[in-house]
Amino acid sequence: MDHLTSLMRVGLIGSGIQRSLTPAMHMAEGAAHGYRYDYELLDLDVLGVGVEQLPQLLAEAEQRGFLGLNITHPCKQTVMPLLDELSDEAATLGAVNTVVLRNGRRIGHNTDWWGFAEGFRRQLPDADLSHVVQLGAGGAGAATAFAILKLGARALTIVDVDPARAQTLAMSMARHFPSASIVSAVTPDAALGAATGLVHATPTGMDKHPGLPLPAELLRPDLWVAEIVYFPLETALLAEARRRGCRVADGGGMAVYQAVGAFALFTGIEPDAERMRAHFQTLTEAARSRA
Fold first, then answer.
1. Which of 23, 37, 76, 249 is catalytic?
2. For a designed S-S bond to 166, which of 137, 194, 196, 269 qualifies (C-beta 3.0 to 4.6 A apart)?
3. Is 150 designated active site?
4. Which CATH number applies to 7-110+254-290?
5. 256-269 pLDDT, tens per residue?
């Protein structure tokens, strides 16, 4: 491919995605490799359509020569029946966040779990995974649960405001990780007493959902805390956890490394993960200064 004349075109389908930092990360990394790289937002809200428009959006992307599409809320499950093939991880998680378009075929992947795992591994490389408590059993929670078990968690307690959803995710993960102890709970209180770490996978702490996802007194200095929220990067949970002496991993890890994984899948080029992380830091600092 001629770097200067050939255009790499990808996109993101989702709802309310105008503030996403993914396009900027992808385009900067593409430019760093000497490519013309265009990343287009296909925002359902802006287009005035719902998930029922997904088949048309996929077909149009193929017709326009897109290398692939990132997929976010509310389309990660809805897109699956429209694909020709799924990676093992996407099939296990029941969610797709990256669709590679090649030779008339649509191949679904999930880089969310790897993104969380990679960010966690880099920020908390020697974390004790004996007993992890996770808050949240939604789409992001499925990815983080899979990731923390892949990293070697021996016990995982999944907590959600919807007990049935927590139980369903626990049962699903137990099928894939039979040697781990995986249970669900209605509240984190009892489990956190014996836990070594906390994974937070709910929207609480985001700009639109401020606050703490659990009582502050449950945080202990010997507990590590991993976050998925990255708007803002320093959530109320991370600030409180730091104040109480906990080691923490911010939500930027998942945001950056899911993009790293998707870039490699789209282009076949190994991106510079540290460069993408540095660019992400610049973007979040700029966003915070504008707020």
1. 76
2. 137
3. no
4. 3.40.50.10860
5. 999 999 999 999 99
